[in-house]
Every structure is written in C-alpha cells, then in structure tokens.
Write a structure and sequence with these properties.
six-stranded antiparallel sheet; 34% strand; mainly beta; Jelly Rolls; 152 residues; single chain
Length: 152
C-alpha cells in the first residue's frame, strides 16, 4: 500500500451518488478520486425499512458513525442501536450489517482501513466477504421486501 503524497481536498460537488448492488442502497465513495489505498470513506444513506449486505472483511477495520437518524446494526449475533453522532468500530472477520427499521432515512459515515484488502498476487474471493447470503435481513426487518425489485 502506498500513501498519497501531499493532500487531496474533497468538495461537496465531488460526491457522486451510486446505488450499491445487491441491496440497492445509495452511497458515495468520498475518497474514490483520491486513489487512497490505505483509507476508505463512504457515506451510506439507508431509506426506511432497508439494509446493507451482511458481510465481513478480510483485513479492514471499519468505523461506523451515524450522521443523521438512528443507526441500527448487527455485529455477529448482537444487535446495536447507535444514536446520532455515535459510532462502532468493527474488526475484520466479524460479520456485520447496517439496517434501518425506522420510518426515516439514516445517514452513515463508514471509514475503513486498509481499503485495499488483497496484496499483489492474492486472488480476490467474494466468499471471503460474503460467506453466507449477503441479502439476508436481520430479524428486525422480518416481513420486509428488501432489496427493491430492479428498476425501482
């Protein structure tokens, strides 16, 4: 991994919002243009009654911080409620999923390092991130139809 040289300013107009597959949750990669290999930083906006994927990381620690709304997440078998301006640090190899079982959007800032989890010569294997069904919903969203059908 190579650190950037100098600095890189990120302005609000630089944000490009995308919809992540397979869960159809809006996000923006705050450092994408910087080409950082050490730190990842993304904003995730979870609509009401939605969830991100149930996943883990190979090497990255992730810090989850709630900017707007009330955050809900599961880490392993534990369900957490994270208040606005509260956060949770999760180590690699720990299964995690943010979700929103409220009626208002939740905006998360998620920082992770290292952003590049495979070194030269290492083969990317999606099963190392999603060892089980990534679309499974937490029990708090039982009966919810998420993600939305394509085109929604």
């Amino acid at each position: 991994m190579k650190a950037i040289e100098g600095y890189y300013e990120i302005k609000p107009d630089d944000h490009v919002w995308k919809v992540a597959n397979p869960m159809k949750v809006p996000y923006t990669d705050l450092l994408e243009q910087s080409k950082s290999e050490i730190l990842g930083a993304r904003l995730w906006r979870l609509p009401p009654k939605s969830a991100n994927t149930y996943h883990k990381h190979v090497k990255a620690e992730e810090f989850y911080f709630v900017l707007e709304g009330v955050g809900r997440m599961r880490v392993g078998e534990t369900t957490l409620t994270v208040p606005k301006h509260g956060g949770v640090l999760v180590g690699p190899e720990m299964m995690r999923q943010i979700f929103n079982d409220t009626d208002a959007d939740t905006l998360w800032l998620i920082l992770g390092a290292p952003d590049k989890e495979f070194g030269p010569g290492e083969t990317f294997d999606i099963k190392r991130f999603w060892p089980t069904d990534p679309k499974q919903l937490p029990k708090e969203l039982a009966g919810v139809d998420w993600p939305p059908a394509s085109g929604a």
